Amino acid sequence: MSSQGPSEQELRAAYEAELKKLKVEDVLVQTVVSLLNLGGRKAGLAPGTEDERDPNQLRLAIDGARALLPLVEPALGPEARQIRDALSQLQLAFARMAPGATAPSDDAPAGGAQGGGEQAEKTQGPGPAQSSGRLWVPGQ
Length: 140
Prior knowledge:
By secondary structure, this protein is mainly alpha-helical. The protein has one domain (8-104, 122-136). Helices cover 61% and strands 3% of the residues. It has six helices and two strands. The chain has a two-stranded parallel sheet. The longest helix is centred in the middle third of the chain and has 22 residues, at 55-76. The N and C termini lie far apart (61 Å). Residues 108-124 and 134-140 have low confidence and may be disordered.
């Protein structure tokens, strides 16, 4: 029977064992990484993907990664910086890709600083970049 491979019951048992070990954080992290990788293709950043450029798909990948990132940053630890850097690269690619379009922007303070003054400045009204129309803000 081993020459035929595992039975359906054995495969199901192995699948169930893997599901027991899996955590939601793992799936979310993998989803963020997948969105960033796919976004890189839709930005045409990888050699040979220039014909795959699609600003709408790139924007969706950026928005999805940005939405999930706060949920997975604690699980990522120091690796979160790499993810944020990759997201920033996609945002820059989007800005270069769509002249006249506004680029998605990461609203997290630079360097992870959490000053109350910075937050107060953000809530007082649009800054110069947003007022000029060059800063993309979700829902606006």
